[in-house]
Amino acid sequence: MKKSTIWFLTLIMALTFIGLLYIQIMYMRNMVKMRDDQFAEGVKRSLYAVTTALEQDEAKYFLEQDFAQIESSYYSNYNSTGTPSLGGIKYSFTTNEGVKGDLTLKGDLDALTADTSLKIKPGMSRRTMQEVLRSQYLYQRGLMNDVILNIISQSSNRPISERADSATVATYIERELNNVGLNLPFEFAVVNRAGAIIYNSPNYDISQAGTSSTFMQTLFPNDPRNKMNYLKVYFPTKKDYIFSSIRFMIPSFVFTFILLVTFVYTIILAFRQKKLTEMKNDFINNMTHEFKTPISTISLAAQMLNDTSVRKSDTMLKHISTVINDETKRLRFQVEKVLQMSMFDRQKTTLKLQEVDANVIISNIIHTFNIKVEKYGGQIESRLDATDAIVNVDEMHFTNVIFNLLDNAVKYRSDDRPLMLRVSTRDIDDTKLAIEIEDNGIGIKKDDLKKIFEKFYRVSTGNRHDVKGFGLGLAYVHKIVNELHGQITAESEYGTGTKFTIVLPLTK
Fold first, then answer.
1. Are 94 and 76 in contact (CB under 8 A)?
2. Burial (CB count within 10 angstroms: exposed 0-12, middle 13-18, buried 19+), residue 178
3. How far, in Å, CA of 438 to CA of 449, rounded?
């Protein structure tokens, strides 16, 4: 699959997920808004019903008082013997201007009632009957007007705690909320026009009075403006009530998140497989170069053996045979390095640990590798100053680690100056051995320096025509050093050179 195809599928799926999440979020917001509006409408309707009930209670209160006063006046016209008194009927009233007065109808009570009732009698003409009914209607309306005037003029003078006591208000609020299906806890307070609390429920929190969970309703709207009082109600669990209606959306978001994670993981796998495919395609082209170096070295040594003067020198023969032996080992290592690709996907590497002198092994490697360095006009400096260099390592893998680092130094040499390699060992606190390999090559950029130990990663400068590889060398070095309970670090300045430092524990 082409990389452009993977990116196209990634873009399509990303847009799809964004659209799906947008629809879900908008649907959830609309659900919350609709639920909140329904809640507010139900509360407002309930509070209006509460104020209406309180107004009806107040009207009933004044009607009962007026009825009791009239009834008292009626019975006061009879003495203890049951005979009517001529005192008449006494009625008190208060005008709109606040002027109070008494009205007394004197005479025989029965006569008064007979006269004032103006009952319809048989034989009356139609006109007379209409006059009688009209007089009776005007009389009854006058009584009602007096009662209404009393309510209007006197009601606002009563304390609000008497007109709407807290127990009654709480009962009415609970009843009306239940009627609209809002069965949830609430707290309330009655405040005056200035906002001062007259009384409140035990758990009323004034800090919540300004939140969206608080609702306010005017008590007795017909009162004078300066005597207005208000009922404030807030619901501590309103948010829980609102969001309880969208809990069914939680599984939808969970499934969407699972799909998103699966999609991202799939895309990562696709890019990994793409990278592995590219690596496998490059393997065929790079394998020849990886094997070319040791083969060419062995071929060069074989050509030197054809020289008669070389064969006559025992020292030269020994040196050439050593080189052939070492390069054969290196060739075997190159084959093994190809097989290391599978090692990264497995568990711990199988190492054959043994105590060796790192100075001796490094010295042999330098002796062998010197031929390749001299081929490019360079030289190796060695300072094996470690007094105690006995480490517990796998000799073959340890040798391969040093070879890899030296080989990289040759690969990424600078064309502007002769190649110079420095290999040194030193002690660290008598418990660790430090091995440093430094070159004056092209160096590594800071961005690449953080990733050089990653599998299959190759720095951009590695795309030179004469440098090929699998991107496994430094990853292999890093893994082996870690398996040996050591550490490896890299320091580099682009255009100047690179230094690798390996720290291994000494054998006690």
1. no
2. exposed
3. 15
Tens digits of residue pLDDT in 31-54: 888 888 888 899 999 999 998 888
Confidence of residue 14 (pLDDT cuts 50, 70, 90): confident
Q: How many CB atoms lie within 10 A of CB 405?
A: 25
Give CA–CA dist 313/161, Å, rounded: 125
Contact 445, 508 (CB under 8 A): no
Upper half-sphere CA count for residue 340 (Cβ side, 13 Å): 23
Which 3-state string (H, E, C) describes 195-227?
CCEEEECCCCCHHHCCCCCEEEEEECCCCCHHH
Least confident of 37-46, 295-304, 402-411: 295-304
Alpha carbon distance 408, 471 (integer Å): 11
DSSP 492: E
In angstroms and rounded to an integer, the radius of gyration of the C-alpha atoms of the chain is 52
Residue type at 41?
A: E
Which residues are CB-contacts of 188 (< 8 A; sequence separation ≥ 6)?
169, 170, 173, 200, 201, 204, 231, 232, 233, 234
pTM, full prediction: 0.45
Q: Which single residue is written with the structure tokens 């490019």? A: 376
